């Protein structure tokens, strides 16, 4: 009895991977074995970097808050400590946005905690 192979499913799997490899350079976009490895690696990077993005945004927010607080003679840690002591529950994302785009509101927060 001849061996049964499912060419339809095999072709579909390969087409799916080659579609994901669109935009890659050279053989990575159209040669099955190379594209498969490239797509696997790309998926690992995207999974990892979805988590790293959260870290880097938090670091950016902290930098912006620190710059805003230092204009009024406070370090970042002093500023955050006084916020907690005064029960002001603004997260870092909001504070960074205030420091960058709305300095009057950020100054009001500083005045409230001093």
List keywords for this structure.
about 0% strand; c-terminal domain of poly(a) binding protein; mainly alpha; about 110 residues; 5 helices
What's the SSE blueprint?
Layout: H1 7-20, H2 32-70, H3 76-85, H4 92-101, H5 103-113
General description of the model:
It is a single chain. It is built from 5 helices and no strands. The chain has about 110 residues and is mainly alpha-helical. It has one domain (about 10-114): Ribosomal protein L20, C-terminal domain (c-terminal domain of poly(a) binding protein). α1 (about 5-20) packs parallel to α2. The longest helix has about 40 residues, at about 30-70.
CATH topology descriptor:
c-terminal domain of poly(a) binding protein
CATH class: Mainly Alpha
Q: Provide the succession of SSEs.
A: HHHHH
CATH architecture: Orthogonal Bundle
Extended strand count: 0
Helix content: over 70%
For the biggest sheet, the summary is: none
End-to-end CA span: 86 Å
Please indicate the percent range of residues in DSSP E strands (runs of 2 or more): under 5%
Morphology call: rod-shaped
Count of helical regions: 5
Structural class, from helix and strand content? Answer: mainly alpha
Q: What is the domain tally?
A: 1
Radius of gyration: 26 Å
CATH-assigned homologous superfamily: Ribosomal protein L20, C-terminal domain
Give the overall pLDDT as a whole number.
Answer: 96
């Amino acid at each position: 009895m001849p061996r049964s192979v499912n060419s339809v499913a095999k072709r579909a799997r390969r087409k799916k991977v080659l579609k994901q490899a669109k935009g890659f350079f050279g053989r990575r976009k159209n040669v099955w074995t190379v594209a498969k490895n490239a797509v696997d690696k790309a998926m690992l990077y995207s999974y990892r970097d979805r988590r790293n993005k959260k870290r880097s945004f938090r670091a950016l927010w902290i930098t912006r808050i620190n710059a805003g607080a230092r204009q009024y003679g406070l370090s970042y840690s002093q500023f955050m400590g006084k916020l907690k002591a005064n029960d002001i529950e603004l997260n870092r994302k909001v504070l960074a946005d205030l420091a960058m785009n709305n300095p009057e509101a950020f100054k009001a927060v500083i005045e409230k905690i001093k």
